[in-house]
Amino acid sequence: MTSTYYRYAIAAVVVFDLERPATFDSVAKWHADLNDKVMLANGDPVPAILLANKVCCNCAPTSVSNSRFLTSCQ
Fold first, then answer.
1. In angstroms, rounded to a whole number, what is the distance separating the alpha carbons of residues 16 and 10?
2. What is the pLDDT of residue 10?
3. Burial of 16 (0-12, 13-18, 19+ CB in 10 A)
4. pLDDT along the chain (74 residues), means of 10
5. Global pTM?
6. Sequence-ordered list of residues with C-beta below 8 angstroms from that of 46, at least 6 positions apart, any chain
7. Helix (H, G, I), strand (E, B) or coil at 48
């Protein structure tokens, strides 16, 4: 992640693809990278939300289970 993407950021969205478990496996690394590189003016970490992509009624069951997702968010 280069500074061009996060300069002056006051929040972040970490997005993973429900149909590609490898992207979910990378969430912790991406969040740690964010915390290492981006701080608010007062030195606090930038607030971040986790967003699951590709949720629709017509899709096949997802590869990342709800329990795995919820456990990782705690």
1. 20
2. 93
3. buried
4. 79 90 90 90 93 69 65 66
5. 0.69
6. 6, 9, 10, 11, 12, 34, 35, 38, 39, 40
7. strand
pLDDT value of residue 19: 82
pLDDT at residue number 62: 57
- Contact by Cβ (8 Å): 23, 17: yes
Which residue's entry shows tokens 């607030």?
Answer: 47
pLDDT value of position 48: 94
CA distances from 50 to 41, 43, 55, 58, 73 (A): 22, 21, 14, 23, 8
Amino acid at position 51, single letter: L
CA-CA distance, 5 to 35, in Å (whole number)? 14
Beta strand extents in the chain (DSSP E only): 12-17, 48-53
